[in-house]
Amino acid sequence: MPEIASDIPWETGDELPPTTFKNLGLDSRLMAGCADMGYEDTRPVQTAVIPMALEGRDVVACAETGTGKTLGFVVPILQRLLTEQPPYGDGQREAYTRALILAPTRELASQIEDTIVGLTYHTPCSSVPVYGGVEMGPQERALKAGVDIVVATPGRLLDHVQQKSVNFNSVEVLVLDEADRMLDMGFIPDIKRILAMLPKERQSLLFSATFSEEIKKLADSMLKAPVLIEVARRNAVTETVTHRMHPVAQDHKRQLLAHMLKTSSLKQVLVFVGTKFGASRLAVYLEKQGIEATAIHGDKSQQQRTEALEDFKSGKARVLVATDVAARGLDIDDLPHVINYELPHVPEDYIHRIGRTGRAGKEGDATSLVCPEERGKLAEIEKLIKRPIEQVLVQGFEPGPDFDAAADKGRRGRGSSRPERSEGSREKSAPPRREPRGRRDEERERPPSRRVEPAKPKLPKLDFDPSKPYEPKVSPQNTAPEPKRAHHRPKRAVPALLGGMPKSDQDK
Question: Rounded to a whole number, what is the largest CA-CA distance in the chain?
């Protein structure tokens, strides 16, 4: 597979001079929407992407969540819809869709739809969100009536394809948002099915936080001579975020978390866990400890997820416990604290997680609770971000002497061992399940916690050269567990008269 657009260099959006939406030559109705929503100056990704997209160019943009990329593709789409004649006449609008935006999660699709609704208030443009967790009926009626913009998750969109309620023949613009997450969640086959149904002549825009070989191949299959734009260094961490980790035994994690929340002034804390079951269980535990908490994950209905997010944003819930998949696309202003209750299996997910704090130059705090079994994952994360993470012991929650020993064991076994068991996996009634193609679980009791007394920081030894580029290893979650050895009892000889084989045949 050849390199995509190898003759076109990367453009770094951060280096471009900022501009204003007024200087982009936008339709007056669209400008009125920008003014209503308070959009004046463009952010780096918008400065780089919007002019290229307005020219009708295909674009690949490497940009994190929270950089303002949504406006980078919504504004050009709306400008196109307002200034170019639709491919249908009066009374022929049925089942037409002019722009298709694909997102990996309901939350992200809903967030994009909210932006579109705000910007189109003074325009005749229409849009509909299409995702699971809600009834298909209203979506089906909107699609059959014809709508300018469809914002969809791949799975629900294909459901509508089967119901023949959507028509792709008139799609002029395709946007694939957070393509890296699409890959992680196993949506690429669905994406390819959708691509095969779209017109060959279209404008395509792809956004991704990382740019792996898989994403490069996908971009090569869906874009023509794209402009490549990079906003912020790939796999970079924000300098305004403080990183620390607390060593702790797996069985004592939730007690330590409750202790931290009770004895500190931490407000609006986003806590990441590995599984849906683990998120619900941890939120219930925190509630029993008198800490206002709510959970968001894939088993929640869309209404429940929206309510949980609103409770968190309004301060009704102090803690939001979330899985990686459910938290993808969450846009929370001034989020000061992120806690990794469990480290991610994929090191890049650490950057996605902590990227939700320390935005727009504001300070943020990223804390990880690390048990001995997770030392291998910690080393991979440190290698990725090219820095050691400060280790702070919490009095009363020391993990014991086996912590450092586990570090060496974890480093030796990385990439070949099965995923670590966590407490939820010991529950027979609730076997571990995969988060939309993903992950693992949680917890147990401990005596009452004591006051936090940070010991003298101890920096872990690194078994890598930070100056060399990060080389990802095989994720444990993708490694097949070792088959269990069956315990066979010796076979008793059966007389031939009763149906047994001659002794000579039994020995073969």
Answer: 97
C-alpha 185 chain-centroid distance:
9
Separation CA 336–CA 419 (nearest Å): 30
Per-residue pLDDT for the chain (508 aa), expressed as one digit of tens each?
A: 333 443 344 455 555 666 899 999 999 999 999 999 989 889 888 999 999 999 999 999 988 766 788 999 999 999 999 998 776 655 556 668 999 999 998 889 998 999 999 999 999 999 999 999 889 999 999 999 889 999 999 999 999 999 999 989 999 999 999 998 888 888 989 999 999 999 999 999 999 987 778 888 888 889 998 998 887 554 555 667 889 999 999 999 999 999 999 998 888 899 999 888 999 999 999 999 999 999 988 788 778 888 888 888 888 999 999 988 666 656 676 688 899 999 988 887 887 788 777 555 567 888 999 999 998 999 999 988 888 999 999 988 988 766 665 444 444 444 333 333 333 333 333 443 444 443 333 333 333 344 444 444 444 455 555 445 445 554 444 444 444 444 444 445 545 444 555 444 444 4
**CA-to-CA distance for 227 and 236, rounded, in angstroms?**
22
CA distance 128 to 140: 10
CA distance 295 to 282: 8
Determine the distance from the C-alpha atom of residue 376 to the mean position of all C-alpha atoms in its chain, rounded to a whole number.
Answer: 22
Domain boundaries, the chain: 10-230, 241-478
Q: Do domains 10-230 and 241-478 have the same CATH topology?
A: yes
Q: Which two tokens stand for residue 26?
A: 């936008």
Structural tokens at position 99: 């722009």
Spatial distance between the Cα atoms of 226 and 57, rounded to a whole number of angstroms: 7
Residue type, 495: P
**Residues with Cβ within 8 Å of residue 137, at least 6 apart in sequence:** none
Map 81-129 to HEC letters. Answer: HHHCCCCCCCCCCCCCEEEEEECCCHHHHHHHHHHHHHHCCCCCCCEEE
Measuring CA to CA, which residue among 191, 163, 171 is closest to residue 104? Answer: 191
What is the pTM (predicted TM-score) of this model? 0.57
What residues are paired with 208 via a beta bridge?
62
User: Could you name the CATH architecture of 241-478?
Assistant: 3-Layer(aba) Sandwich (3.40)
Cβ atoms of residues 208 and 177 within 8 Å = no
The full 3-state SS of 22-52, as one line of letters, equals HHHCCCHHHHHHHHHCCCCECCHHHHHHHHH
The tokens describing 435, both together, are 């988060």
d(CA 293, CA 270): 10
Architecture of domain 10-230: 3-Layer(aba) Sandwich (3.40)
To which residue do tokens 């939350």 refer?
107
